[in-house]
Amino acid sequence: MTENGDVTPLVQMENVNKHFGALHVLKDINLTVSRGEVLVVIGPSGGGKSTLCRTINRLETIDGGKIVFDGQVLPEEGKGLARLRSEVGMVFQSFNLFAHKTIRENVTLGPTKVRRQARAAADTRAMELLERVGIAAQADKYPAQLSGGQQQRVAIARALAMDPKMILFDEPTSALDPEMVQEVLDVMIGLARDGMTMMVVTHEMGFARRAANRVVFMADGQIVEENTPDEFFTNAQTERARDFLSKILTH
Amino acid sequence: MDELIKYAPDLAEGFLENVKLSLVAAVASLILGTILVAMRVSPTPVLRAAGTFYVNVVRNTPLTLVLAFSALGLSDQLGLVFSETPRTNSFWIVAMGLSLYTASFVCEGLRSGINTVPLGQAEAARAIGLTFIQSLTLIILPQAFRAVIAPLGSVMIAMIKNTTVATAGGYLADAAAVMKITFDTTGASIPIFIGLILAFMALTMPIGYFTGWLARRLAVAR
């Protein structure tokens, strides 16, 4: 976890609070993510997992507390915020590929428009990334022509094209047909092995066991428990976590 | 029929003015309408309020009043002069008034187009680090335009027909003005009416077909 010898955490959240109207969705969240760490966030629906994930690139604002990314407090808006977002990849549940652009254009848009890279260099890099996620043959198609699993792999390539310091995965396999889940997880496991810092909100316990360094269990807006995957799945400390695990692991 | 044949050259010359006004107003209203919609969806409250105010005032004012205000208020009273030649000046005053008026409809058409673009598109755009303007111009508006090509075609058709009230802005050279002058000498002529109706249909019907075709061709598959 000390890649490049830099031991400061990549993400530090201190007493983060957020409300949606009367609903208190994040309650005094304290969490750090180290460089190179793969953190899996699990827990019941409505527990605040996605919201937590989305506060890190400020797609959700917070009402109180502090989030520091790579030594810098999150900028509130403007150019600073855009630059921060360009350093944090994000993969959404519903893929959100740009519907009017080809697969290749989806991957090159960020590098050319945000990073001002030359078109040729961005194209070459895009094809390498699409090769890596196994979609190179579909580069000139539009998102709607691809299966969900393929679209999600393109979304991962789009995030990687920005050379992010971290990638956020907000339930990346929840909208997929069952037979397409594994192809996406395989790509994510590959990224984890390559040392990418990842925060993954998921219900895929298999992924958590195989790739995570740490599991965070969230319920009712609070972090109830955090532990290594082995410890968490075999020896959960809280009643809430044991109850949750008993419901999902029996299937 | 004789009147139509006799006055056809004058009427055609007038009709050409309608075409010229239409071309100017089409380009100007599409540009201004796009700027207005960018204001209406911007994160800056002042810009949003200004855009909303503009659209609500202009869209709800009768076009004849917009044109009369442009000519009598903006030009005569406040000294907005495009040209020393009165006829040329009137042309541009009317073109401006018509563009300002049509832009409010273009804006609202585009805004309903923006509402068809899923929120996730904007989130993905922001998540890769695009600025608000980049998200709007590269991701949101291109998809919004495609969703409202056909309704925008209707706005353009209405605008073309609206060129016939140019007289209200002091421009007395368009086909409707020429027709009225003709009628003052010959009396009302049904062939002239029908001739002008056919001329406008020849201009507007292809726009309807073309935008319908374009809308199908450019539809964004989701």
Automatic annotation (TrEMBL), chain A:
Keywords, comma-separated and alphabetical: Amino-acid transport, ATP-binding, Cell membrane, Membrane, Nucleotide-binding, Transport
Query: Which residue range or ranges hold the ABC transporter domain?
Result: 11-245
Q: According to its UniProt record, which reaction does this protein catalyse?
A: a polar amino acid(out) + ATP + H2O = a polar amino acid(in) + ADP + phosphate + H(+)
Places the protein is found: Cell membrane
Q: Which domain of life is it from?
A: Bacteria
Give coiled-coil spans as residue ranges. Answer: none
Q: What family classification does the UniProt entry report for this protein? A: Belongs to the ABC transporter superfamily.
Q: What is this protein called?
A: ABC-type polar-amino-acid transporter
Q: Say which species the protein is native to.
A: Nonomuraea glycinis
UniProtKB/TrEMBL annotation, chain B:
User: What's the protein's topology in the membrane?
Assistant: Multi-pass membrane protein
What is its subcellular localisation?
Cell membrane
Q: Which InterPro entries match?
A: AA_ABC_transptr_permease_3TM, ArtM/GltK/GlnP/TcyL/YhdX-like, MetI-like, MetI-like_sf
Sorted UniProt keywords: Amino-acid transport, Cell membrane, Membrane, Transmembrane, Transmembrane helix, Transport
Q: Which residues form the ABC transmembrane type-1 domain?
A: 15-209
Name where it mostly resides.
membrane
Tell me where on the tree of life, at the top rank, the source sits.
Bacteria
Q: Name one GO cellular component term.
A: ATP-binding cassette (ABC) transporter complex
TM region(s), chain numbering: 21-41, 61-82, 91-112, 124-141, 192-215
Gene Ontology BP annotations: amino acid transport
MF-aspect GO terms: transmembrane transporter activity
Family the entry assigns: Belongs to the binding-protein-dependent transport system permease family. HisMQ subfamily.
Fetch the NCBIfam families from UniProt: HEQRo_perm_3TM
- Protein name per Swiss-Prot or TrEMBL: Glutamate ABC transporter permease
**Native source species:** Nonomuraea glycinis
